[in-house]
Amino acid sequence: MGSDGGYDIMEVFIIKFVLADVVIIAALLLAGPIYAVAITGLLVLSVFLTWYLTQRVGGGEADAEPGGARESDPVTALQERYAAGELSEAEFEAKLDRVIEANERAERAGVETEELAIERSG
């Protein structure tokens, strides 16, 4: 399983192909070749549909933040805004301190913060 508790795209396709093989073999043995060909066509169509939907859903996440930063990575978003001149050094450090404090509070509360894990330097 993926790091966020869900399946990544490769795992989805592997599971889909294994299940498809089982269904096609069962159709060949129990129902005959015409049904097996029809089921194979439906499974191929479903693979392409799954791929299309994962690309469509996955592609929209990078555009959610200005500068293309992912929503789940506030440190990178801050760094990009600072590099673009949107934030002064003081604003950048204040916002970074808030992110670090929020990360530390989440860790104390037992919330998973793997993507946000940073250490306070100082």
Describe this structure in words.
The chain is mainly α and 122 residues long. It has two domains: 52 residues; 50 residues. It is 66% helix and 0% strand. The two termini are 36 Å apart. About 9% of the residues have low confidence.
Question: What is the gyration radius calculated from CA atoms?
Answer: 23 Å
Uncertain segments of ≥5 residues (pLDDT<50)?
60-70
Structural class: mainly alpha
Strand content: under 5%
Largest sheet, in brief, is: none
Transmembrane segments: 12-29, 35-53
Domain SHOCT: 74-98
Protein name: SHOCT domain-containing protein
Keywords: Membrane, Transmembrane, Transmembrane helix
Top keywords for this entry?
single chain; 122 residues; mainly alpha; 2 domains; 4 helices; 0% strand
Strand and helix layout:
Blueprint: H1 9-30, H2 33-60, H3 74-83, H4 89-109
TL;DR?
Helix content is 66%, strand content 0%.
